[in-house]
Amino acid sequence: MIIITGAAGFIGSCLVQKLNDEGFYDLVLVDDFSNENKNKNFEGKRYSKQVNRDVFAEWLRENHLHVQFVFHIGARTDTTEMDVKLFNQLNLDYTKTIWNICTEFGLPLVYASSAATYGLGELGYDDDESRIPMLKPLNPYGDSKNDFDIWALKQEKKPYFWAGLKFFNVYGPNEYHKGRMASVIFHTFNQIRETGSMKLFQSHNPDFKDGEQMRDFVYIKDVVNVLYFLMHHRKDSGIYNLGTGKARTFLDLAKGTFKALDKEPSISFVPTPEDIREKYQYFTEANMAKLRSIGYSQDFYNLEDGIEDYVKNYLVPGKFL
């Protein structure tokens, strides 16, 4: 059996599809399945069992002999949420529990970290583990991810193989339920469809013009390819960046979405909401040398090709991955 936590969510459900495509069907989906809005993400996919996240730790202890691999993708990912106790419960402590069980029973583990751990990028975007304790995330979500990375690195006892992946700005099918946290491509598509135009955030940083804020946008198909690679690799444990290594502007992203829809760009700018303005990342770019060094050699989608695939093959026809 292969475990996927967060299996009803964006990345988790796309990983389920990837595993199905590769001939893996004995999958255990773990999530809070009470959110019916996400159920479309795993409809039509093949799996063995659903386990509610509240009883998963107990279930894993009882069934560890049948488990081959654990993907812990589930997390509270709302960067605007300020309840530290909630993040400690769902991100930090929950992941510690899974880590300890995997260590005890010899189960390989890949878990989701985040590029939010890099904060404003004062120390760059290099996944050098010696720098991780010095990082300064901008919100409780980033803190919870960085706190776990620090804790994991300090442990004397670890799973025989483990990897933490710092996801950068992931976009693609199955993110429709994320609301405000969905990618700007998703929001651009919907705004164009509803109004014929797109409103991007203004820059409140004199070093960046409006729309020229830059992020490392990585397509979900690349993300699940890396996850699949690590499932088979099972060596070189550690914490890895997962982006493309190439920062692009939000203007590039919006223009690419208009192009995929065969429409002329109509873009304006609105003030960045005050609740995120002071904690806004103006630039992220993953250093991908470490993942490449352990043998991952596939090319990543460039932004234009990723947008075109997402818009034409998923958003327009209303399909899921």
From TrEMBL:
Pfam families (alphabetical): Epimerase
Positions contributing to NADP(+) binding: 10-11, 31-32, 38, 53, 73-77, 145, 170, 178
Presence of keyword rRNA-binding: no
All copies of domain NAD-dependent epimerase/dehydratase, residue ranges: 2-243
Signal peptide feature range: none
Enzyme nomenclature, EC number: 5.1.3.20
Cofactor(s), names only, from the UniProt record: NADP(+)
Cofactor: binding details: Binds 1 NADP(+) per subunit.
Tree of life domain: Bacteria
GO BP: ADP-L-glycero-beta-D-manno-heptose biosynthetic process; carbohydrate metabolic process
Entries under Gene3D superfamilies matching the protein: NAD(P)-binding Rossmann-like Domain, UDP-galactose 4-epimerase, domain 1
Recorded metabolic or biological pathway in which this protein acts: Nucleotide-sugar biosynthesis; ADP-L-glycero-beta-D-manno-heptose biosynthesis; ADP-L-glycero-beta-D-manno-heptose from D-glycero-beta-D-manno-heptose 7-phosphate: step 4/4
Catalytic residues in the record: 141 (proton acceptor), 178 (proton acceptor)
Reaction(s) catalysed (UniProt annotation): ADP-D-glycero-beta-D-manno-heptose = ADP-L-glycero-beta-D-manno-heptose
The family this protein is said to belong to: Belongs to the NAD(P)-dependent epimerase/dehydratase family. HldD subfamily.
PANTHER family referenced in this protein's UniProt entry, alphabetically: ADP-L-GLYCERO-D-MANNO-HEPTOSE-6-EPIMERASE, NUCLEOSIDE-DIPHOSPHATE-SUGAR EPIMERASE
Physiological role: Catalyzes the interconversion between ADP-D-glycero-beta-D-manno-heptose and ADP-L-glycero-beta-D-manno-heptose via an epimerization at carbon 6 of the heptose.
Protein name: ADP-L-glycero-D-manno-heptose-6-epimerase
Naturally occurring in which organism (per UniProt): Daejeonella rubra
Organism lineage: Bacteria, Pseudomonadati, Bacteroidota, Sphingobacteriia, Sphingobacteriales
